[in-house]
Amino acid sequence: MELRKRNYYVERPLLNQEQLEELGCLTSATETHQWRTWFQCSYTRARALLLQHLPVLAWLPRYPVRDWLLGDLLAGLSVAIMQLPQGLAYALLAGLPPVFGLYSSFYPVFIYFLFGTSRHISVGTFAVMSVMVGSVTESLAPDEDFLQAENATVDEEARDAARVQLAATLSVLVGLFQVGLGLVHFGFVVTYLSEPLVRGYTTAASIQVFVSQLKYVFGLQLSSRSGPLSLIYTVLEVCWKLPQSVVGTVVTALVAGVVLVLVKLLNDKLQRHLPLPLPGELLTLIGATGISYGVGLKHRFGVDVVGNIPAGLVPPVAPNPQLFASLVGYAFTIAVVGFAIAISLGKIFALRHGYRVDSNQVAGAVSSLFILVIIVKLGELFQDLPKAVLAAVIIVNLKGMLKQFTDICSLWKANRVDLLIWLVTFVATILLNLDLGLAVAVVFSLLLVVFRTQLPHYSILGQVPDTDIYRDVAEYSEAREVPGVKIFRSSATMYFANAELYSDALKQRCGVDVDHLISRKKKLVKKQEQKLKRLKKLQKQTAASKDTSVSIEVHSSTRDMESNNMEDSKAEGEGSAMSCRDGGAHACPERKATDLPAVSTGNELEGMVASGQEGAKAPDVTTLKALGLPQPHFHSLVLDLGALSFVDTVCLKSLKNIFRDFREIEVEVYMAACHTPVVAQLEAGHFFDASITKQHLFASVHDAVLFALQHPRSSPASPVLMTKL
User: Which residues, 6+ apart, have CB-to-CB distance to 5 below 8 Å?
Assistant: First the structure.
């Protein structure tokens, strides 16, 4: 679409920071002591606190029964139908008896119903959490610790009891951590888990889940492993023991998998015509249980089944405090991962449906009642369910997470830095396991952010014709540099990690070797100081013999002084000076008396020393031009600090050094476009002093450029100019 040309004119005074604050009436924010309100007690505050932590009291009285009840009943039924097979299956991931999967589908959902704020999330078993719990239970209670001496078989009852105790204690610690995270408002942790990181992590977790189910698919007895490279060792052991596979188990898993895939395809094809999707998992579980019971898969073909599922709820047992020390690290990792996943999902639905999710709570629904009925009355009917069918349910449901491998192609085209995060997260999680893999992924992601701030885009800006807009001259062909003014900008904030790189890039982009020029200037100034010292020494020697002729040593010193002066200034009279030394003063009558290396009186030498002292003090003597050094092709430098979001002590020192170095080569430095919080931090860091004031800081780049053009190499305390933009 072609833009119509519309001119606008703004007439305002040229503003530096002091004038901007005066014009805009800048007021300092009043300091608030929020902690004082924490100890105030009132009915209103108590009621608000109760509703904040028990949201069900707020929404249940206003629940629209006529509008929502039927939909919630159908949703609860569908969730229960899905939770039943997944609960049984994911218990295997956690290394626990299947009935505990049903418990996990009831208690969290009911509690979430009371304390949650999202009406779309249903809490229950989750593959990533289950496999993380399983890695803990299998590492701390491996099968090898429960071998029976008489027949070298595993005492499954004792092993399951130990693993249940571990899982229960771990759950308590995870809950305590998550309550603590909620109290300290730890919802910000989600910001450190970027989408590529989460998707790479869940993809690697799906591989972990897939490998963990291979022993149930092939009917193998594998060693329990955990820690780095455990996944690789498990895959190698599976390959080694494949000849020992139970044929009946493999066939059962394959048939169940094919049925599940066909039902999912049928649901996708008929989703427009079906009020609810066909419950493929539940139908498969019911059919497999009936076939297993009727055919006798366990006794005739050696297919491992779920076994005893006790009816009713198990009474609660207190966790074992002696296990806290060994589980605290695992608990914190699981708490953070579960917390982040729940908040991420909750915010997705909240944004989609237009309500707010508190980052320090989560939600639940009606399905817990259906799960409770199954636990109390119907759970024991699934005792003959083959574990291979549950493994098939888990593997087929991994399809969504395994599809995330397509992220590699899309991220390669869109953002290769995000692709690097995805790949590092995936590889680290595969090799180091879920807990260490997540830690490595987060650290790498944060380091990558720091690294990217160390390599921002530096640019020299030019003015777009007939505007007050300044853009990179390398990107905009019509942007032109302002004669005599260099404008430098960085795309990232300057802090301790990139302050030195900022200074180096500035000096490089300006086209002047600032450090070399300063070094040459200091050497020449030092030579002048040494000459002055020799003149003073000569004055003292001359004063001692004021009424006598100067000795040959004085003559020699004067000659040395003159030769040094001629060497620095490259004068043309070097040859004639040599002839005067050989032939005397009369041999060079054309030269002035002051140029002669002949005998001088004490008064004349005093005059030379005095003039030398005055010359040393005069500013013109140490200018680049007076010293014969090249001068920069610009007289002013403008630093566009619009990208500066904060400053630290290293940033302050670097800015002061920039002012010092460029002033040393006779270039005045100005700053522009600082945000108010940054200006406040500059003041707090005592950046402004007698040499750098707020009059060096301008409201915009254009203000700084106009001032620099009107006042080249002048003091900033000049009258304000009117300009038309």
Answer: none
